[in-house]
């Protein structure tokens, strides 16, 4: 599903080059949930962004469904991301003036759904994450846990083949975090590849595999 | 929900965000409308002032001495009176470019022991006499009954004649209708009478010495082109042009337009800077939205759609409101601002309304284009990281 080969990433700093990722290779299959742990500043988010087609690696390649993301033109990469990738962020990034249903509907529109069906489908997705009754609420009227569930619904809108979650429980209380973890796990069981970056050891419990990133290198953690 | 609907939703639900750009466009367009309106009013005033300076065209026989004509002395060349009708009604060039024709027959005479210029006149108005000129030249347009004369101020002083006095001129009696105020020109020394009566006195029926007219107060190559055309049409006449009057109007026009252009340039630059700042600030505020949309696979073109409806609506609405405000301001404070008298009406240009709306849209588009272009090219990782 998603495969990284010898990924390297170096940032230029005034004090010199900073190598964040050094030859990372990994493979996440469809239906698999992989949690990536590591200390702050270890490059977890950088690796996630490279896997998601948002950040070009210094070297190496990322294959999504067998297609090398960074050999594509920027427009083709955007198209592939639109069709196959969903993102969940720590601070949700919901559009504040849109209702929960509209936030999800925008993602559905980008993935080619019609106007009428996208509203129905958005409400159905919100119902799946337990927010069917909050579809017409704007983010300000929702709790942080609910906001993250809206973001989850948005991420799975249009059935992407891979979902990247960057610290999805970082701003949540334990109960809300558990709900979000449960949904992520469910999405992977439904066939999506799920890659989660987190500090939260509890979240690691949903993983089929846990990876540890430190010093720019990844190792499997039992 | 597509991105245009999203943009409209943003406008409806965050109306305060509209206020700043709308106010900027409104101010810029209203100042532009004020400048345009006052420019027109000021040019009207210039036209009136230059019209007061007298006719600027003189047609005399080709072999005439202009010195003799102006001083009304010596032998003056004559021409048939019907030439005036030809100039006013049939000659295509003068018909288009000149108006207010005054045929003159003039003779130096002694009245009450003082030498004055007896001037028989007949006005043949062209088709385009502006109202202002009619008022300024009212004494020439007055129906002067047979047997009456009008005295210039100097002629009145020199002859000691006053209203209702009777003057004997070369054997014929005339009654003074009134004495004109001082204009400070040669006409002050004239005694005005009906053309046919003066012609009768000197047995010169159908004969005149010249025709004054108010031509286009233009100068430069355009005027030279008109002069050449007239020379072709009436080769037996000579046209004398009071260049100074045309120059006054031309210089006034250039001055008014220069001042207007400077004001417009300053307003445009300041307004564009303000719109750009507002747009940059909005893009910064909405980086999260933009970053998420980019991450979800929206391309740069779709990000433009997020801003375009707002830019168009703000531009059109601000332009239309700016027209309204500008028109009101021009009418209310314009006369004081531009030093216009009450006799110069400040007109409201309704036809500027669609232009103002279009100007608002173009201004809004151009001024915010840099910020929106940058938004469309944002790196999603950077956009999301800065939050």
Care to describe what's here?
The complex is a heterodimer of chains A (222) and B (387). Chain A is α/β, with parallel strands linked by helices. Chain A has a single domain (2-221), classed as P-loop containing nucleotide triphosphate hydrolases (Rossmann fold). Chain A has seven helices and ten strands. Chain A has helices at residues 44-51, 74-84, 100-110, 115-128, 144-156, 174-189, 201-204, and strands at 2-13, 16-28, 33-37, 59-64, 67-68, 85-88, 162-166, 193-197, 209-214, 217-221. A six-stranded mixed beta sheet of chain A has the order 6-7-8-3-9-10. Chain A is globular. Chain A starts with a strand and ends with a strand. Chain B is of the alpha+beta class and 387 residues long. Chain B has two domains: 3-49 and 250-385, no CATH class; 56-241, no CATH class. In chain B, the strands form two sheets. Chain B has a nine-stranded mixed beta sheet with strand order 6-7-5-8-4-3-10-1-11. Chain B has a two-stranded antiparallel ribbon with strand order 2-9. In chain B, strand 6 (166-169) and strand 7 form a beta hairpin. In chain B, helix 11 packs parallel to helix 15. The radius of gyration of chain B is 32 Å and the shape is elongated.
């Amino acid at each position: 599903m998603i495969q990284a080969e010898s990924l390297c990433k170096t940032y230029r700093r005034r004090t010199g080059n900073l190598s964040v990722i050094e030859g990372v290779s990994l493979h996440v299959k469809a239906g698999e949930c992989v949690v990536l742990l590591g200390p702050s500043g270890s490059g977890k988010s950088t690796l996630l962004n490279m896997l998601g087609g948002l950040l070009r690696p210094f070297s190496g390649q990322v294959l999504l469904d067998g297609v090398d993301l960074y050999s594509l033109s920027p427009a083709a990469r955007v198209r592939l991301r639109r069709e196959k990738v969903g993102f969940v962020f720590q601070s949700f990034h919901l559009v504040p003036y849109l209702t929960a249903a509209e936030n999800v509907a925008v993602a559905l529109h980008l993935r080619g759904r019609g106007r009428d069906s996208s509203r129905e489908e958005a409400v159905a997705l919100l119902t799946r994450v337990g927010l069917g009754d909050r579809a017409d609420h704007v983010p300000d009227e929702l709790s942080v846990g609910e906001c993250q569930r809206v973001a989850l619904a948005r991420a799975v809108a249009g059935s992407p083949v891979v979902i990247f979650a960057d610290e999805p429980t970082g701003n949540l209380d334990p109960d809300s975090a558990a709900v979000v973890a449960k949904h992520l796990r469910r999405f992977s069981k439904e066939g999506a590849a799920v890659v989660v970056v987190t500090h939260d050891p509890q979240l690691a419990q949903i993983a089929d595999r846990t990876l540890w990133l430190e010093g720019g290198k990844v190792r499997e953690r039992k | 929900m597509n991105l245009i609907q999203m943009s409209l939703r943003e406008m409806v639900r965050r109306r305060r965000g509209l206020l700043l750009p709308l106010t900027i466009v409104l101010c810029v367009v209203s100042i532009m409308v004020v400048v345009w309106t006052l420019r027109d009013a000021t040019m009207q005033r210039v036209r009136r002032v230059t019209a007061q300076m007298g006719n600027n065209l003189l047609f005399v026989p080709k072999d005439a001495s202009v010195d003799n004509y102006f001083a009304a002395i010596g032998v003056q060349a004559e021409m048939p009176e019907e030439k005036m009708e030809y100039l006013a009604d049939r000659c295509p060039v003068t018909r288009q470019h000149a108006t207010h024709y005054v045929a003159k027959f003039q003779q130096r005479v002694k009245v009450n022991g003082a030498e004055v210029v007896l001037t028989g006149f007949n006005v043949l108005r062209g088709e385009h006499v502006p109202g202002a000129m009619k008022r300024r030249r009212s004494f020439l347009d007055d129906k002067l009954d047979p047997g009456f004369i009008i005295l210039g101020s100097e002629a009145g002083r020199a002859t000691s004649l006053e209203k209702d006095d009777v003057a004997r001129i070369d054997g014929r009696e005339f009654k003074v209708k009134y004495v004109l105020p001082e204009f400070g020109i040669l006409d002050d020394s004239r005694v005005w009478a009906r053309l046919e009566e003066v012609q009768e006195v000197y047995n010169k029926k159908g004969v005149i010495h010249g025709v004054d007219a108010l031509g286009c107060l233009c100068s430069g190559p355009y005027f030279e082109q008109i002069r050449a055309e007239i020379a072709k049409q009436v080769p037996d006449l000579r046209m004398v042009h009071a260049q100074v009057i045309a120059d006054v109007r031309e210089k006034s026009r250039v001055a008014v337009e220069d001042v207007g252009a400077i004001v417009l340039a300053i307003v445009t630059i300041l307004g564009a800077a303000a719109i750009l700042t507002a747009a940059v600030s909005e893009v910064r505020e909405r980086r999260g939205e933009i970053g998420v949309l980019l991450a979800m696979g929206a391309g740069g073109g779709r990000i433009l759609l997020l801003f375009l409806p707002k830019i168009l609506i703000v531009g059109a609405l601000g332009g239309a409101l700016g027209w309204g405000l500008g028109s009101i301001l021009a009418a209310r404070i314009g006369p004081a601002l531009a030093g216009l008298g009450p006799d110069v009406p400040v007109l409201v240009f309704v036809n500027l309304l669609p232009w103002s709306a279009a100007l608002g849209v173009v201004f809004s588009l151009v001024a915010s284009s840099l910020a929106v272009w940058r938004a469309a090219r944002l790196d999603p990782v950077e956009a999301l990281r800065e939050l």
